[in-house]
Design brief:
It is a single chain. This protein is an alpha+beta fold. It has five helices and eleven strands. The model has no long low-confidence stretch (mean pLDDT 95).
């Protein structure tokens, strides 16, 4: 493992209007599963070789959240989503890059731009590779969702010692009737239960950000207290 560089960036907040944010980055080459686990437990997220977490001095709205897998019980409506999607096949493999990946990624983000006002700029093969393929090492995977022979969803995850870290999911909006975002999370939970993993690390929950409020619906869950350093214990409450 080699920390190539470490730095902070001040920018406009990604989640709340009229706020700025400070983000701490670590760029790590050949990161081990153990070290990735330690970082995720302390509120870091991973895109490629980049590990990051917000460290804003005057705001603590970004709450790292994880689902308690062992005590999670599927509701009747959640079971209906799984049943409705019984004809959708999924395959897990190491992260990859293809023309189909890029086309689906672009289609999804154009849809979210129009539906939710997301900022959008076309993604190149290099950008996609750096964000979702590079740096996966022994723990990174993608779950591919197919309707018949058509790729309709890609779920990027890290499988750690004690849980699954949910990185990013994108899908074909033409198949929204299958609630693919929820389906991918339900399948993560099922996989974690089967694999005897304790947690689904869901990234950040921000109460006032509409795109992230869904995370509080998956109970029971815990949130990370403060911003522990690597030499400090992580306390989840």
């Amino acid at each position: 493992m080699n920390i190539l560089k470490e730095f902070k960036v001040n920018d406009t907040c990604s989640y709340l209007d009229n706020k700025n944010q400070t983000t701490h980055y670590k760029v790590i080459d050949d990161c081990s599963t153990v070290f990735c686990q330690e970082l995720v437990e302390r509120g870091y997220r991973r895109f490629g070789k980049m590990y990051f977490r917000p460290i804003c001095g005057d705001c603590n709205e970004c709450q790292s959240i994880k689902i308690d897998v062992e005590n999670f019980n599927f509701s009747s409506s959640q079971k209906r989503v799984l049943k409705k999607a019984s004809n959708i096949k999924s395959y897990i493999q190491r992260p990859s890059l293809s023309k189909t990946h890029l086309e689906l990624f672009e289609k999804y983000h154009l849809y979210m731009r129009d539906k939710k006002g997301w900022n959008h700029s076309p993604s190149s093969a290099q950008t996609y590779y750096s964000s979702f393929v590079d740096g996966h090492h022994d723990f990174g995977y993608e779950v591919l969702y197919y309707y018949e022979d058509k790729l309709i969803g890609v779920d990027l995850i890290d499988v750690l010692d004690d849980g699954v870290s949910s990185i990013y999911f994108y899908y074909d909006p033409e198949y929204s009737r299958y609630s693919l975002g929820r389906l991918s999370l339900y399948n993560q939970i099922l996989f974690a239960k089967k694999s005897k993993k304790k947690w689904i690390y869901l990234g950040y929950y921000v109460k006032e950000c509409p795109s992230l409020t869904y995370k509080s619906h998956y109970t029971p869950y815990l949130t990370l207290k403060d911003r522990p350093e690597l030499n400090e214990d992580a306390s989840w409450l």
